[in-house]
């Protein structure tokens, strides 16, 4: 009967749910990023509102170039998720095989025990006690029966646990398979979207080519592009400062709240202790009074002994569960550096170039009739990976007139690196990056004539020559 009950636990299993853990995590992540993205969108809109330039040909490409960037980033993220989910599925498969082998072995052991017990006649304890046999033998047999029962109970418990583990493993494996199917479907959709947007952009480029060439050579446009990027950097700096101040204020508020709670708890504990000590003193005084009456020959009812004070006694303390409001909030994506202060400056002269290619424009050189270069331009093959020069956090990732798909990384100590004219942005605002991480891919967005990377470095919002810092 016990074996049948244990085997029945293996049946069932709810695999029908299609809402995967991945879907829930994606929704939560997108909700967390919404506030940051809203602030950056408002900031970019405010910058555009103050511009005098109208009808820039590159603006016509903006929507298409942003869509291409988003599709490429989604495909890259999906590929990474697919690999991770595949690894998880293989691990679950290995665990499943081990669990199945263990369950089969335990079932065989249990079946052997039950069979041996049946062959032995299945004598119970009552029969042994009423048999009139030698008491020592009865005691020994009862002890042996107890050992057998304990072994059976342990085996049944282990079997039940492993059967539940098999069911849980199957549910996890099914969820991983559902996630893989979900990822594959998203990949197909993103690839279709990417091809459509590339075709649309190619058609727009053909139509706008002459206007783009003329506008890119116009000195006024170049100055406005430079000013626009400078305004973005300045306003981002202010936004980051405001966010840091708000975070510091929130930390102070939480510390004050925690201190107030600790003080209130200490006060309550002290009051409770005083009450217990007062009650103890009162009880002790009553005992002394009764002792005096007994000494005089009076008959009094003895009181129970005093219990030790739990604060003074060496007793285990019960730890209260934290209240719901005491639990820390989950970390939210934020602006600001992900690298410690001073770490970036220590890398001076040792950082690798963000992309392999030919340096065609250097810091400070003239741009035709327009302003001088505030950064460098590196010709590189379209689609090549652009890598972060050092650890930091992405503070901007979006399309900007004159810069195309633009990504900005804050490295701490007010050092920033800027990467423009990208085909795709592979990181999002708030993402922490390490030196050498791929953050974008080479392109010619923003109306650029050739594919390549526009790269800047800034300190306190002001551009400086990266040649002494990065090995080009």
UniProtKB/TrEMBL annotation:
Stored InterPro entries:
Cell_wall_metabolism_enzyme (IPR050570), Dup_hybrid_motif (IPR011055), M23ase_b-sheet_dom (IPR016047)
Q: Where is this region: Disordered?
A: 263-342
Q: Which Gene3D superfamilies match?
A: Glucose Permease (Domain IIA)
Read off the PANTHER family from this record: MUREIN HYDROLASE ACTIVATOR ENVC, PEPTIDASE-RELATED
Which spans does this entry mark as compositional bias, Basic and acidic residues? 263-291, 314-330
Q: Where does the record place the M23ase beta-sheet core domain?
A: 373-466
Q: What is the lineage of its organism?
A: Bacteria, Pseudomonadati, Pseudomonadota, Betaproteobacteria, Burkholderiales
Organism encoding this protein: Janthinobacterium fluminis
Name the residue ranges with Low complexity bias.
292-301
What keywords sit in the KW lines? Coiled coil
Q: In its UniProt entry, what is this protein called?
A: Peptidoglycan DD-metalloendopeptidase family protein
Q: Does the keyword Coiled coil apply?
A: yes
Recorded hits in CDD domains, A to Z, give:
M23_peptidase
Keyword DNA-binding listed? The answer is: no
């Amino acid at each position: 009967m016990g074996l049948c009950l244990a085997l029945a636990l293996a049946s069932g299993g709810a695999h029908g749910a299609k809402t995967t853990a991945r879907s829930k995590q994606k929704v939560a992540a997108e909700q967390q990023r919404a506030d940051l993205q809203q602030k950056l969108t408002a900031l970019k809109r405010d910058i555009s509102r103050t511009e005098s330039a109208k009808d820039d040909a590159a603006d016509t490409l903006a929507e298409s170039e942003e869509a291409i960037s988003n599709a490429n980033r989604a495909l890259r993220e999906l590929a990474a998720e697919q690999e991770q989910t595949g690894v998880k599925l293989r691990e679950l498969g290995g665990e499943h095989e081990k669990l199945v082998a263990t369950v089969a072995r335990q079932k065989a052991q249990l079946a052997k025990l039950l069979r041996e017990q049946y062959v032995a006649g299945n004598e119970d304890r009552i029969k042994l006690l009423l048999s009139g046999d030698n008491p020592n033998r009865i005691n020994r047999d009862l002890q042996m029966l107890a050992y057998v029962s304990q072994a059976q109970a342990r085996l049944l418990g282990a079997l039940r646990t492993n059967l539940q583990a098999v069911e849980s493993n199957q549910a996890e494996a099914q969820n991983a398979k559902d996630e893989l199917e979900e990822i594959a479907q998203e990949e197909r959709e993103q690839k279709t979207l990417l091809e459509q947007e590339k075709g649309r952009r190619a058609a727009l480029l053909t139509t706008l080519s002459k206007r783009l060439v003329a506008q890119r050579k116009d000195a006024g446009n170049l100055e406005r592009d430079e000013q626009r990027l400078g305004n973005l950097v300045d306003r981002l700096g202010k936004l980051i400062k405001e966010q840091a101040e708000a975070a510091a204020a929130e930390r102070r508020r939480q510390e004050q709240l925690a201190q107030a709670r600790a003080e209130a708890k200490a006060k309550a504990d002290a009051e409770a202790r005083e009450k217990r000590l007062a009650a103890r003193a009162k009880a002790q005084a009553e005992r002394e009074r009764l002792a005096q009456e007994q000494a005089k020959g009076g008959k009094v009812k003895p009181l129970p002994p005093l219990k030790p004070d739990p604060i003074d006694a060496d007793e285990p303390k019960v730890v209260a569960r934290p209240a719901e409001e005491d639990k820390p909030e989950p970390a939210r994506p934020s602006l600001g550096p992900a690298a410690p202060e001073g770490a970036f400056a220590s890398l001076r002269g040792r950082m690798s170039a963000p992309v392999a290619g030919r340096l065609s424009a250097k810091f400070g050189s003239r741009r035709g009739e327009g302003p001088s270069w505030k950064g460098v331009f590196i010709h590189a093959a379209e689609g090549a990976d652009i890598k972060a020069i050092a650890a930091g956090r992405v503070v901007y990732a979006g399309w900007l007139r004159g810069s195309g798909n633009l990504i900005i990384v804050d490295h701490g100590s007010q050092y920033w690196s800027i990467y423009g004219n990208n085909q795709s942005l592979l990181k999002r605002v708030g993402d922490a990056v390490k030196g050498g991480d791929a953050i974008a891919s080479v392109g010619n967005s923003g109306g650029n004539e050739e594919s390549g990377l526009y790269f800047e470095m800034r300190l306190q919002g002001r551009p400086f020559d990266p040649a002494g810092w990065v090995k080009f």
